Each structure stands twice: as structure tokens, then as C-alpha cells.
Amino acid sequence: MAFQLGPSVAVLLTLIIFFLCLLTFVGVPHTDLSQDKSRWLKYPAWHPPLIGRDDNKTDGGLFFSSLIITFGCIITAKVTANPPTSQKLQSVFVSETEHGPKKVSAYGFNRLLILYSFITMLTLFSIIILDVGKIWAALGITHNASEFTILVLIGSGGKLKSNLFWGLLCCYWFFVYLGSLLIEWPFDANFNHENVPLTRDDVHHDGPEPHHSHDHPHDQSHDHTHDLEDEYEVIHHPRQLLLLILASVFHNIGNLTATVSFDELLPSLLTSLTYGVTYPAYLYYVYVDTFSISIYPQKLIYLPSTPGWKKFIIATISICCSLLTVRLGAFLQARKDNHGDDITAVYY
To answer: Which one, of 290, 293, 294, 227, lies nearest residue 78 by Cα?
Structure first.
């Protein structure tokens, strides 16, 4: 029999891990890290002067990523202007409820991915003009808020059920930006960058099985199956979801690189280029999901059960990962400041 932790024990262990992460910051002294200024507005920026700074390269990386995301947004917005009319083209989220399986169309999720990518494009392109700082934070928080909305939508079975969510989102928007304005350097940069530390696209899916019911009888779609196969490509559902997972992992690696090496040109440049891979991959998922059919009557995406205690654990562990990322950056900066390679630098 497999060993399983109960909800109470799992939550307690999660809290212990969280406090251990906080303890790693004990003894970290105040930093005198120098702060660069934005090129055009001359306001303080959220990074030190870059080693080997080359505005031509950094602007080129940001512009390339922004341009390719823009093209992807235009194409996918056009092809998803109307919901699919055939059952075999529709993707559906399936979640377990106390009343049995509940199905919700994934069309809204796909459209939200497009909006999220468009906001990301604006956030990236604005860095060329504003640089990363307190003014830019207004767009940065909008980007984070759209991420948060996607996570809540997935955790809610594919549909935002409560009107209270939008009020909470506005409160989050206001208080995070207020914190970004009032907190001093360099903690304002860390605060804004890590205020939504949840892992993107936290979707666990199992391989769907053919589903026959009175709501979606197989013979309704069977009449048009051959016509659809001539017009659309047949995919091995749900393999298209791998695009979301792989792109998310790739993007998180890029963000980790920029966080721990924030004063060097190459990590900053590589991070900006990861956006040009990650978000087009998200949009390519939308395109594939829109123009592909499955061998099954419908493309079903099974979502995990996420009661409150599971959401708490996921959020807390994600915050811990973000805290440890910041702590790693502080450790590496201390090694540079002290010009030492010994392990005692971990205490700085």
C-alpha cells in the first residue's frame, strides 16, 4: 500500500519548509549594490550597471521577441475569432466535482493565452523605452496579473466561477504596485519580480479515453469525421499540451538565469530571447488545438482535483522556490563583492 500524507501533515510540513527558507535570509547584510539609470528617462532602473553593456544587443533581443509574439498574437486572434462548431474540434476541460465530472470548453482558456501573450509583448517592448523600474512596473504587474488569472482559471476547472475574483485581482494589482513604489532598492525589484512566483501552466493531464454519453454521443460527430480529416490534421491528443509544459520550463530557466546573474549582459540577453521562444510556443499550442481533431469524439483535458489545502501547498512551495532563487542571487553577489570562492560566502 502506497504511503500517503494527510492534508494536515502535508500543510504542516509545507509551513516548516517555508520558515526554513525564511531562516536562510538571517545574517544577510544590507547591500550597497549600485543602481543603473534608464537610458531615455534617466530614472533609477531595477538592475546594476551591466557588465559589458551593449544597448544594440539588448534592444535587438527585446525587439525580436516582441515582434515574433506580435505576429503570433495576430494569427491566433484571427483563427480563434469564433468558437469551433464541430465537437471533434473542441477541447474541453474535465474536472471532478461532488456532482460528478464537469465539462467546460477550453475556448476561453485559449483566448486568454492570446491576451496574456499580447500583454507580455507590450511589457517586453516597453523595456526598450522605459527600462525595468517603478514606471515599467505598472505593465509588469499587468503581465503577472494575467498569469495569476490563468492559474485561477485552471484551478477552478476551466471557468472563473466567482465575481469576487475580479475584486481580489484589483486589490492585488493596487497593493503590489504600491509596494513597488514604496519599497527601496534593491528590494523593490525583488518584490515586483517575485510577487507571482507560481509555476506557469500548472496543468496535470491524463491521457483521455473515448467518452460516450447522452450529451456527446459518438454518432453525432461520426457523420462528419471523414470530412474533417480531409480538412484538418489528426493529432495524438493530448500531446499538444506538451508545448505548454516545455515552454513553461524553458521560460522558468530563463528567468532563473536572469535572477541569479542580473548584472551581466549575456544572461540578460538570453532571458529576453527565451520570451521569443516561450510565448510563440504558447500561441502555437492555440493554433494546433484550433486546427486539429482527435481520434476521440472530443478532445478532453482532465484537470486534477485542487481543494483548498492543495492550492495552499502549491502556492507556498512556489513562494519558497522564489525565495531560494533570490537567496541564491544574494549568495552569488556576496561572492563577487568579497572576491572569494570559499563556501563561507553563503553567510553574506
So the answer is: 290
